[in-house]
TrEMBL record:
It comes from Gelidibacter salicanalis. The chain crosses the membrane at residues 12-37, 57-76, 83-103, 109-130, 142-162, 174-195, 215-236, 248-268, 275-296, 302-321, 342-361, 367-385. This is MFS transporter. It comes from the Bacteria. Keywords: Cell membrane, Membrane, Transmembrane, Transmembrane helix. CDD domains: MFS_NepI_like. One of its GO terms (molecular function) is transmembrane transporter activity. InterPro entries: MFS (IPR011701), MFS_dom (IPR020846), MFS_Efflux_Transporters (IPR050189), MFS_trans_sf (IPR036259). GO terms for cellular component: plasma membrane. It is a multi-pass membrane protein. Pfam families: MFS_1 (PF07690). It is found in: Cell membrane. The lineage of its organism: Bacteria, Pseudomonadati, Bacteroidota, Flavobacteriia, Flavobacteriales. Residues 17-390 form the Major facilitator superfamily (MFS) profile domain.
Length: 390
């Protein structure tokens, strides 16, 4: 059987094992980005740095991802997809392991920037890589399975990694994650199919994409959805303390994680056929969960239920928006998803800053009002965006 025929046969049968392996890449990718946030006090004490400096270990990572995603995706379009992924996983592994070994803050910042650059290329390319391995009708399913790693990383991976950091030190956490990434890279080397790169045409360039009205609508939905969700998520501890939630932030994250996992499974099944309905539901559930926080958050059980509803809304966020933007182009889907990914990362920074300003002036519940205020136009735009989400 020829290589082309084998690839076509693979496309007809959804390659679950390959997609799950790709999902493990996004799992360690999100952990690599967010890990310092779970062990801030430990890193502050060990490196003798301030809380702001420690927070910058996440901030610089996100900035590097946002800035370098579009230019580097464009420059690497002709690279073999498997080879490029091996290079990126190598960058993740080395930057985390060395960061766990050195004691100089400046060097650690440089290593975090390197990790951020790798992430800026990885997020859009791995979704496009996966889509090229399946039939067009399964593009949404492929993105949903691959990006499920992000949700699992946030809801399950982060608590585990934070526990490891607290028990064995933040350095063991970083080195351990680097080792896991190296193992995933080794498995990927033998298991993932080799896919050639594509030529970047003028019609599929980032600037050409920004001239497409549907792409601009999706980018606007990305801004609204990400700022609404992450404005609350970044300060989830403050919200939990304000509500005096029984079980604390651990119980909040548990119910949030359960909701996220359920919605990811729904996204895997329905994204290809019901993208617009799911996007409307995502914003709708976010509004409902935030209203429950405001009205019944202090009531026994209702606060936990609100976190569950919020998790249902949060789970498919990345999947829906990447699936939507990838539908707008026939080729060079990496470029389309890189534009969306850059806006996603910039939106996280905006969310953190805007919510921080609100918390400095008002109570933690102010971020809940922010989420509702942004979700209302989000649900309206999604309802009328029949062409962009159809």
């Amino acid at each position: 059987m020829s290589k082309a025929n084998l690839m076509e046969q693979t496309k007809r049968v959804f390659p679950w094992l390959i997609m799950i392996l790709m999902s493990s890449v996004t799992f360690v990718g999100i952990l690599s980005e967010l890990m310092p946030s779970g062990v801030l006090p430990l890193m502050m004490a060990d490196l003798n740095i301030s809380e702001v400096q420690t927070g910058n270990l996440v901030g610089y990572y996100a900035i590097a991802s946002a800035i370098f995603a579009i230019p580097l995706i464009s420059l690497t379009m002709q690279f073999n997809r498997k080879l490029l992924l091996m290079i990126l996983l190598g960058g993740f592994a080395v930057s985390n392991i060395i960061a766990g070994l050195v004691h100089d803050y400046t060097i650690i910042i440089i290593l975090r920037v390197i990790g951020g650059i790798c992430a800026g290329v990885m997020w859009p390319m791995i979704a496009a890589y996966g889509m090229r391995l399946v039939d067009t009708k399964d593009h949404g399913k492929a993105i949903a399975v691959i990006m499920a790693g992000t949700t699992l990383g946030i809801s399950i991976g982060m608590p585990i990694m934070t526990s490891i950091g607290n028990d064995y030190g933040w350095r063991a956490e970083f080195i351990g994650l680097g080792g896991v990434i190296a193992v995933i890279a080794l498995i990927s080397f033998f298991a993932l199919p080799s896919i050639s790169g594509e030529k970047l045409s003028k019609g599929a360039s980032p600037f050409a994409l920004l001239k497409i009205p549907e792409v601009l609508i999706i980018l606007l939905l990305t801004l609204l959805g990400v700022v609404a969700h992450y404005g609350v998520y970044v300060y989830i501890t403050s919200l939990v303390n304000e509500m005096q939630l029984s079980g604390g932030v651990e119980s909040a994250l548990l119910f949030f994680g359960i909701g996220s996992l359920i919605s990811v499974l729904l996204a895997i099944k329905f994204t290809d056929k019901h993208l617009r309905l799911l996007t409307i539901s995502m914003f709708g559930l976010l509004i409902i969960s935030m209203v429950v926080f405001l009205a019944f958050g202090r009531s026994s059980g209702m606060g936990h239920f609100a976190f569950f509803l919020w998790g249902l809304s949060f789970g498919p966020l990345v999947t829906l928006l990447q699936a939507a933007v990838s539908r707008q182009v026939e080729t060079a889907k990496d470029v389309a998803t890189s534009v969306q990914s850059s806006v996603f990362n910039l939106s996280i920074m905006i969310a953190s800053s805007a919510a921080g300003l609100l918390l400095g002036i008002y109570s933690p519940m102010s971020v809940v009002y922010l989420a509702i205020a942004l979700s209302i136009p989000g649900i309206i735009i999604s309802f009328f965006a029949k062409k962009a989400l159809g």
